[in-house]
Amino acid sequence: MHELRTRKTGDLVVVDVHLEVDYRLSVIEAHEISESARYSVIERHRVADVMTHVDPVGRG
Questions:
Q1: Cα separation of 54 and 39, whole Å?
Q2: What is the DSSP string of 16-50?
Q3: Which of 9, 24, 30, 48 is the most buried if burial means most Cβ atoms within 10 Å?
Q4: What's the whole-model pTM score?
Q5: Higher pLDDT pick, 1 / 19
Q6: Is the separation of the CB atoms in 47 and 15 below 8 Å?
């Protein structure tokens, strides 16, 4: 994870984060990780929304 940013909207927070995933994962697998992380944050914290960006890592 990197580039974690938050901003307030009313009494809630909007989160924007880049998730680092293994470059060998399929787009579907990376998307599933992204969605799982998003919903975990929404369930545990008072946030309006979580925007996740998937960044492949590990190649080269």
A1: 15
A2: EEEEEEETTS-HHHHHHHHHHHHHHHHHHS-EEEE
A3: 30
A4: 0.82
A5: 19
A6: yes
Measured distance CA(54)–CA(52) in Å, rounded = 7
* pLDDT tens, residue by residue, 9-26: 888 999 999 999 999 999
Residue indicated by tokens 């924007």: 16
> What is the spatial distance between Cα 36 and Cα 17, in angstroms, rounded to a whole number?
13
Which neighbouring-strand residues pair with 23? none
Phi and psi, residue 10, nearest 5°: 65, -130
Distance (Å, whole) CA 35 – CA 33: 6
Q: Is there a contact between 13 and 51 (Cβ–Cβ < 8 Å)?
A: no
